Amino acid sequence: MKVGIIDYGAGNLRSVHKAVESVGVSAHLVTDPGQMEGIDALVLPGQGSFGDCVRHLVEQGLREPVRDWILADRPYFGICLGYQVLFSGSEESPGVAGLGVFPGDVVRFPVSDLKVPHMGWNQIDPVDDGDPLWEALGADPHVYFVHSYYPRPALASDVACRTRYGGEFASGVKRGKVVATQFHPEKSQEVGLRLLRNFFTSVVPAKTCA
Fold first, then answer.
1. Which residue, among 72, 27, 63, has the nearest Cα to 175 in the 3D structure?
2. What is the pLDDT of residues 126-149, one digit of tens each?
3. Whole-angstrom distance, CA of residue 194 vs CA of residue 116
4. Phi and psi for 50 in degrees, rounded to 5?
5. Contacts from 175-178 at CB under 8 Å and sequence distance 24+?
6. CATH number of the CATH domain containing 62
7. Are the C-beta atoms of residues 133 and 202 closer than 8 Å to each other?
8. Exposure pattern of 181-195 as b/e (b: 16+ CB <10 Å)?
9. How many structural domains are present in the chain?
10. Mean pLDDT, to the nearest integer, of 110-119?
């Protein structure tokens, strides 16, 4: 299996690259559309702002190829901003258009007594416990978050897992071979690595991981 990790200059690339390879797949960085040839899955990690992420994708000529990849239902795993940019736009960067492949928007946590950003370990509640994506994660799996904004998917059928922080929000989506999470699997220790392994073995067809 060959996985392309999109490098737009601001992602948490080193730890994501290490996590992907630790589950038994070959990974290389993608900085232009030509490097997408021959890969089996795309991973888009993200740190920074929504607007900067979109701008870098545009400047590198990756915005439309990545969007086309997702619309063709080819294996994709988005992490943090790689999740948020799937939607139409974000309150963080007014006027900046996301990829728009999932209906919905991205909003900031409301003002409250809770600390923002939401940072640290929190529980995810999978919508479908029988989905192979969640296999062997254990009871009440906890994963690592660091974010001030979160998507609001317009379609309940797109939501793969939920998390409570004050209110409840969609902490992940899944549609076909497209998966994305607000949390960071690469920072979530064994649970995160197991999730990545599950993605590569259950979503990417005819491939195996260690």
1. 72
2. 999 999 999 999 989 999 999 999
3. 28
4. -55, -50
5. 175/73, 175/102, 176/73, 177/73, 177/74, 177/75, 177/76, 177/203, 177/204, 178/70, 178/73, 178/75, 178/76, 178/78, 178/86, 178/101
6. 3.40.50.880
7. yes
8. bbbbbbbbeebbbbb
9. 1
10. 93
Across the range 183-204, mean pLDDT stands at 95
Confidence category of residue 47, pLDDT binned at 50, 70, 90: confident
The set of catalytic residues is 80, 184, 186
Task: Give the whole-angstrom CA distance, residue 203 versus residue 38.
Answer: 17
Domain range for 136 is 2-202
Q: Is the pLDDT of residue 205 over 70?
A: no
In a domain, 147, yes or no: yes
Give the Å distances, CA to CA, from 128 to 78, 133, 145, 158, 196. 19, 9, 21, 11, 17
In a domain, 208, yes or no: no
pLDDT of residue 209: 53
